[in-house]
Design goal:
alpha/beta; 5-stranded parallel β-sheet; two-stranded parallel sheet; 14 helices
Length: 328
């Protein structure tokens, strides 16, 4: 495992991020974009929602990222009977001290893997709202801080599948990005059959970055420069979603903040210390699409509103003027 407690140079950041990416790609065959997006969200201090049909590697991606880091990791299997206290923890009366003692739940970890999050009831899902936004838990009037760094990597099945609930808008807005895995290509699927006949590649992953190293990488991302022109460009894109006639709900100010943070992380992973408009364009769909709700006019004709939102976003990106000379 590689660790560091000092300020990172660009070369050291690139080396550490490469170690994490390589470790994850040994588990996730043929999905470099999904792997890179997962690390981007982690370094931008966001939360990731992975949505796709069962069996395409959603949980594998989340576990691969968690195992490549030497930090506290917990997993929550969301089910219809899961209660909010099963996530946040509960106060238990101690007969000896005659006082209530708080027993932390699985949310108290650096990386929390939430499996099939939309199989739990909306009441249970709402237990994550304070955790994801404020990095704290309030139980019986007492507030407890969560670990730092803290990220939630949640998986969910498409809402059309049996036994699923729609995530509330407030919770979707707290996820920095939503991605889909998609089916592997034929070559990757053949490689999977050969490599996983006897053993899961997850068993071979060793932690490559510790908590101190991860915090140093996050601090490096904070230092990536975003010019006023690029900031204005991100704001223009988000505000355009609020005015577009094909969208009933546009992106929130939180989305603007998270778009800029994700753009910093993407630039850093690309070896740059400044953000380009291309970074914002590349992140527009994964960062914004899950927050938007299309009008009935767009959703008609047999296409779901979620399927049509990326097309609307692509049109908005194409129509928004790109600032000249943006960058350094």
């Amino acid at each position: 495992m590689t660790d560091t407690t000092t300020t990172l140079s660009a070369e050291e950041f690139y080396r550490l991020s490469g170690l994490v990416l390589n470790a994850m790609q040994r588990v996730i065959d043929g999905k470099p974009e999904a792997v890179a997006m997962a690390l981007t969200v982690l370094l931008a201090e966001g939360h990731l929602l992975i949505e796709d049909v069962p069996g395409v590697g959603k949980t594998q991606l989340a576990r691969a990222l968690a195992k490549s880091l030497d930090c506290s990791v917990s997993r929550i299997q969301f089910t219809p009977d899961l209660l909010p206290a099963d996530i946040t923890g509960v106060s238990i009366y101690d007969q000896t001290t005659r006082e209530f003692e708080f027993k932390p739940g699985p949310i108290f970890a650096n990386v929390v893997v939430g499996d099939e999050i939309n199989r739990a009831s909306p009441k249970t899902q709402s237990a994550l709202l304070e955790c994801m936004e404020e990095h704290q838990v309030t139980v019986d009037g007492a507030t407890y801080r969560l670990a730092s760094p803290f990220t939630v990597i949640a998986t969910q099945n498409p809402i059309e599948m049996e036994g699923t609930y729609t995530l509330p808008e407030a919770q979707r807005d707290r996820f920095m990005a939503r991605i889909s895995m998609g089916y592997p290509d034929a070559a990757s699927e053949v490689a999977m059959l050969r490599d996983r006949e006897q053993r899961s590649p997850l068993d071979d992953i060793e932690p490559v970055v510790g908590v101190d190293g991860l915090q140093a990488m996050i601090a490096y991302v904070h230092g990536v420069f975003v010019s006023p022109a690029v900031e204005q460009y991100a704001v223009d894109l988000v505000q355009a979603t609020r005015r577009d006639p094909d969208l009933r709900l546009g992106a929130s100010p939180r989305a603007t903040l998270q778009l800029a943070r994700a753009a910093r992380a993407r630039a850093a992973l690309d070896g740059r210390d400044f953000v380009l408009p291309d970074d914002v364009d590349a992140l527009a769909v994964p960062v914004l699409a899950h927050r938007l709700i299309a009008t009935g006019r767009v959703a008609s004709g047999g296409a779901s509103s979620r399927a049509s939102v990326p097309d609307v976003l692509a049109r908005i990106v194409a129509a928004t003027p790109v600032p000249l000379g943006a960058g350094r």
